[in-house]
Amino acid sequence: MKYQHKVQYYETDKMAIVHHSNYVRWMEEARVFFLEQVGAPFEKIEEMGILCPVLEVSCKYLNMVRFGETVTIDVRLSEFSGVKMYVVYDMYKADGTLCCTAESRHCFMKDGKVLNLKRKYPEVYQKFFEDPENFVDK
Predict the structure, then answer these.
(1) CB contact at 8 A, 106 and 55
(2) pLDDT band at 39, cuts 50/70/90?
(3) Looking at the predicted structure, is the pLDDT value of residue 111 above 80?
(4) Residue-wise over 82-106: b if at least 16 C-beta within 10 A, else e?
(5) Does the structure show a pLDDT above 70 at 65?
(6) Strands of the sheet with 50-51, listed across from one edge
(7) Which of 6, 10, 35, 55 counts the highest number of beta carbons within 10 A?
């Protein structure tokens, strides 16, 4: 699934390139978009009392991005069990140059305890599998 982000001036540093911390923000934007497209938007999940905390983030910066450029983020799942969700992000400049590869790891929780969506909310769990394009090719 592809999400687009236009780089804002405030996202750049003194060297006129995007500061590395902004890539993590873009990952969140792309993840929120992904969940909306899957049919499990954050608003709905949170209304159900379900949380999806970030457990780990990793980024590999490959090419600089500058103010005014548009970054396309290809966001997919590398693993999804209903308890944990691993999301991968490939970020490209308009010319197709890969500028960043990243991953975020999450779990699902409710009432302070780890939650199994497959068991407790199968209707939400199933939404992630409706489109095989949601997953990284194995």
Answers:
(1) yes
(2) very high
(3) yes
(4) bbebbbbbbbbbeeeeebbebbbbb
(5) yes
(6) 50-51, 109-110, 113-114
(7) 35
Distance separating the N- and C-terminal Cα atoms of the chain: 16
Q: Assess contact for 54 and 106: CB atoms under 8 A.
A: yes
13 catalytic residue (yes or no): yes
Active-site residue, from 13, 74, 111, 137: 13
Over residues 120-125, the mean pLDDT reads 96
Torsion of CA 32, 34, 38, 44, to 10 degrees: 0
Measured CA to CA, the distance from residue 44 to residue 64 in angstroms comes to 36
CB atoms within 10 A of CB 138: 4
Q: Which domains does the chain have, with CATH numbers?
A: 2-131 (3.10.129.10)
Q: 9-35: per-residue pLDDT in tens? A: 999 999 889 999 999 999 999 999 999
List the structure tokens of 29: 């934007």
Check if the beta carbon of residue 104 is closer than 8 Å to that of residue 87: yes
